[in-house]
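Practice problem: predict the structure.
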Amino acid sequence: MSNGMLTMSRKLLGFAALLVMGLGAVLFARPYFAVPCSAAVVRVGEISEYIDLEAKTRIERTYKIATPIPGRVAAVGFSAGSRVEKGQVVAELISRDLANRLAELTATVKRLEASILEAEYVGVEDAEVKQSLKMVDMMTDVESARKSQVAVRSSELLYAGLHLKRMLDAKSIYPDEEIEAAQMQRDVKHAEHERDQYDRLASADGIDVAAHRAERFRNEIERKKLFADSLRFAKAEADSRLEQVRLDQARSRMESPVDGIVLERFISDERVLPAGADLLEVATLDDLEIIAEVLTQDAARIRPAARVEIYGPTVGNENVAGRVRRIEPRAFTKISSLGVEEQRVNVIIGFENGDARRLNEAYSLGVGFRVRVKIHVEQKTGALLVPRFAIFRGPEAQWQIYAVRFGVAHLLPVEVGLLNDEVAEITGGLTEGEQVLLAPDSSVRSGTPVKPLAMRPAPQ
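Answer:
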């Protein structure tokens, strides 16, 4: 081997030795130059994605107790927060005026009842009708007899006239005394005929009088019947007014329609009020629910009966279970705190297990109280999970994460599935058991040596 080649070999060996020594020094010194960072271990578990926002309590159906009629209302002793029972008298009208009105109408009804009995009694009139009809029958018989008598008198008068005429025609053979006697007989028969004719006419007039009397009493009976009907209509009207006063008297004691609580008292002192004036507003705590104003794009993911966690200072240091009752069909526009128009929709959430009443007793939870809710929209088991603060957006809005491999931070793109405030589902880019950095220092870059301070799994 020539001297030149030997010299070159020695230089290469020396350079390799220096390189090995440099790499060893770097590896030996790296722990002392590594950036300390919080870390977690990628795990497999369950994740639930939810919408977390502020909401408030409400009672959709409340009951307003108002004056049923105009009148003087007694002082209302119940105040906001007072508990009431169904059927309990919570307000009342001073009933003296109603009592006087009731007495007046009762007397009116009794007077009308007596008048109806008087009007319905037609015994006298009916007897008069019967008597008059008997008189008509009797006078009809008399008139018939007198007709016959008039016919007889007419025949007798005709005979007396003819006899007198014969005697006058043969005056020479009859003495004057017989002619005068015949003339007197004719005058008597004429007088008797006139008298019987008058009696017949009087009998006919008596029939008319009796018939008219019967008709007059029949008309009186009909008039009294019509008057009785009119009195019955008046009594029916008085009965209706009396029943209304009794109903008003019953309504004057206003009762609570439910077992619940007084939400508001509108009137406290005694005063005269018109009909329909509000006195109290009551509701049952079993109807207490939560209304959340959710962005429409988020509401599209919510399903009825979805699980809800209710939390916040107003419900104490516990998470209360709830369920989505319904999503209202009409959205509305609301201006956000940043002045941006947002389309939102009301999501109604109900308490479970009777917690509304329990929370009212424990924390005085009432209507209009602020709470926070987590509305769960999707859930998955067997998901690959990392802490929420381990992922962040890159320059092009893609999800990225720092994975720790051989003590060095490696910036990796990842695919994210479900996401909430605590954990994120990784659907691509990592494997179970890998280490990831949590909110690394701004000095950390891809390739930066790091020293994990805590090797803990992602939150449950």
